[in-house]
Structures are given as C-alpha cells and as structure tokens.
Input
Amino acid sequence: MTVSASQIKTIHTLKGRVGLGEDDYRALLVRLTGKRSAKALTWSEAETVVKHLRQSTGDTPAGQATGRFAGKLKALWLDGWQLGIVQNPSDRALIAFVQRQTKVDHTRFLTEPEDARPAIEGLKAWIARAAGIEWPADRGDIAGAKKAVALAQFRKLVAIGAWPPEHGRMPDESDLAYFAYRRRLGPSTLGDFREENWDRLIDRLGRWLRTALKKGAGA
Output
C-alpha cells in the first residue's frame, strides 16, 4: 500500500514541530526507510516515520525553546537580557512571551514564517522601543544587528551615569572602541570588529549594565 496524502501532511507537520532542517529530514528518512522522499514511502514506512517524529516531539523538554525559529527568537531574547530589558533569560520565559504574542503553546509549533512573525517582530519592536535601537535594514546583517545592540548598551550606560564623562566631555564611540581594545575584546576601531568581537563586547557591557541597573547606576 502506498503512502497517503494525509500521512505526507502529518510527516511534514511533525517535521516542522521537531525543527528538522531539510538535510536532517532527508537523513532521517534514509535512516528509517532507505528513501529520501516522503512521497516514495509505503504506508507502513510512513507510519514508522510518523511514530518516530511523534516520539521526538514528546521527548522535547517543555521548558526548552526548539523549532525552526527558536534560534532567532533566543538570540533576540538574549539581546533583551544584555540590554537590561528582559529580566529572565531562560527559555521558559521566552516560551511564555511567544505564547502571549502568538497564542501558540511552544516555539516548536511555529513552523512557517507567518506563524513566527508576530513573536519575532514583536520582540524586535519591544527591544527597539525600550532600548532605542535602530535595527539594520538588511535582516541578514548579523554584525550590524550586534553593533546596534552594543551601541545601545553603551548609550544606556552613559545615560544612567555608569559610564563617566571623559575629560569633561560626553563619551562617544571612540571611547567605546578604546574600552574594547584595552580589554582585548576587539580591534582599536569598531569598523574592524567581527561578529565574535561584538559578542564579547556585548557580554562585557551586558554584565556591567545589569549590575549598574541593579545598584542604581553605582557600578
């Protein structure tokens, strides 16, 4: 008996819930059935795949953010944490946010871009509004997004008085670059920073900012 249309639909739905990429999905099919396409399966082979995928969704801890869009959501959630906006950096707190934004119970159920858009755009808008960030127009500009976070952290530290004036003037980006260079977080100019340099600087500024906010800018 050949695979049914409902089985194929179930397989693809479960694939999205588990968060399998295309290559991992094909590898799973080959491992379980020796075939690379759901359409080529027999009815019994399809049932084997369905059973395996259902077990996989059940094995995922409820408090762990997983799924196709979990990486993007977690990165934004941690940006909020590093900016002192998000108070709880855990996956459970992120999942609760997603539930409020999308009415979906877990990140693994966000299988299509239109499903995840309310959570992603809502989170970006909240961070931009609360921290004054201007996200890059190019959504693929990861280094640009990291730079935006670091500059927002810097401006916030200056605004709350945690970053003292330099020789009677307000600190500017050259002071941030010097700070990073002195602590071996990156090159002497921000224009030469790579993604890993921004990550290290964001982590250092995040710890400073959270401490300053907790102490009332006394750090």
About this structure: The mean pLDDT is 88.
